[in-house]
UniProtKB/TrEMBL annotation:
One GO process term, biological-process aspect: 'de novo' GDP-L-fucose biosynthetic process
Origin: domain of life: Bacteria
Natural source organism: Candidatus Roizmanbacteria bacterium CG_4_9_14_0_2_um_filter_35_15
Protein family (similarity comment): Belongs to the NAD(P)-dependent epimerase/dehydratase family. GDP-mannose 4,6-dehydratase subfamily.
PANTHER family registered for this protein in UniProt: GDP-MANNOSE 4,6 DEHYDRATASE, GDP-MANNOSE 4,6-DEHYDRATASE
Enzyme Commission code(s) on record: 4.2.1.47
Name used for this protein in its record: GDP-mannose 4,6-dehydratase
Length: 325
């Protein structure tokens, strides 16, 4: 009998990649969607999985809907990928960010506790929880949290409530502390996709400039398709645990820009980039770099796509979107 999995955040970036991965493993995949008048399935369409997922209605802010959902489905696994995940917006919409990112996981955990205690639960945690903290220049599972945004703060609560339900009720719950991971279906508001989309438009003569904020911020960037495999592997272990997932490399926004422009044959990228203060955060996280030794040892996981390759994949995809082959 095939396993079943419920994915929240199915319309985002990671949801379609995870759905595709699980479907290839033979899972029956349920995708949680809110009652939209016109839901956007473009990310699922990109991976050709739209018609292979069973959609169920619910809302991360409505505990009753999640209780009823888990009671009816009894899924083998729940992957909570739903979030207000745009860091800049979290400063402007702190309450919404907290409700979705903190209380949503709590509601799901309660539903599992009451109605389906054998269901395994995965919480999408984030490197933004670390903020300013590091150990010898990197972050791992033992690094303390010091979030620098309402988004990071909300995710710290979700992390600890996931740990608490594991320790208090014996549930199989785990946190994947994923560092930045990107793809051609990354939201256009995120800096990586903003760069690749802007570079594609410049190449095709559609715009003349790319407006950005802090070019010196450094991140550990990987490919989303690699990272959903790590989520799956965490859920297949005998005992639940929490894992840092990342490449172990740190690159600046400036480097991302340079490689993106280089991929379209433009060396002097500075002629096209304008620094705009409106895109800078109130509190910046200067440098994130994962030490994912635990995941490599216990899960046998490692990234497959290199940084340069990731940037080029995204630029090519955006060029294709605008009709350039």
């Amino acid at each position: 009998m095939s396993k079943s999995a419920l994915i929240t955040g199915i319309l985002g970036q990671d949801g379609p990649y995870l759905a595709d991965f699980l479907l290839r493993k033979g899972y029956k995949v349920y995708g949680l969607i809110r009652r939209y008048s016109n839901p956007n399935f473009s990310n699922l369409d990109y991976l050709n999985v739209t018609n292979k997922v069973d959609y169920v209605e619910g809302d991360m802010n409505d505990e009753a809907s999640l209780l009823n959902l888990i009671r009816g489905l009894h899924p083998d696994e729940v992957y909570n990928l739903a979030a207000q995940s745009f860091v800049k917006a979290s400063f402007e919409q702190a309450k919404l960010t907290t409700e979705v990112n903190s209380l949503g996981p709590l509601y799901l955990l309660n539903a599992i506790k009451f109605f389906s205690p054998t269901t395994k639960f995965y919480q999408a945690s984030t490197s933004e929880m670390f903020g300013l903290q590091h150990t010898n220049g990197y972050q791992d599972e033992k690094t303390p949290f010091h979030p620098r945004s309402p988004y990071g703060v909300s995710k710290v609560y979700a992390y600890w409530i996931t740990v608490n339900y594991r320790e208090s009720y014996g549930l199989f719950t785990c946190n994947g502390i994923l560092f930045n991971h990107e793809s051609p279906i990354r939201g256009i508001q995120f800096v990586t996709r903003k760069i690749t989309d802007g570079v594609a438009k410049i190449k095709l003569g559609l715009v003349k400039e790319l407006r950005l904020g802090n070019l010196e911020a450094k991140r550990d960037w990987g490919f989303a398709d690699d990272y959903v495999e790590a989520m799956y592997l965490m859920m297949q272990q005998k005992n639940p645990d929490d894992y840092v997932i990342g490449t172990g490399e740190s690159h600046s926004v400036r480097e991302f820009v340079e490689i993106a422009f280089k991929s379209i044959g433009i060396a002097d990228w500075k002629k096209y980039v304008v620094i705009d203060p409106q895109f800078k955060r109130p509190a910046e996280v200067p440098n994130l770099k994962a030490k994912a030794d635990k995941a490599r040892k216990n899960l046998g996981w490692k990234p497959k796509v290199a940084f340069d390759e990731l940037v080029e994949i995204m630029v090519k995809a955006d060029l294709k979107r605008y009709g350039s082959r």
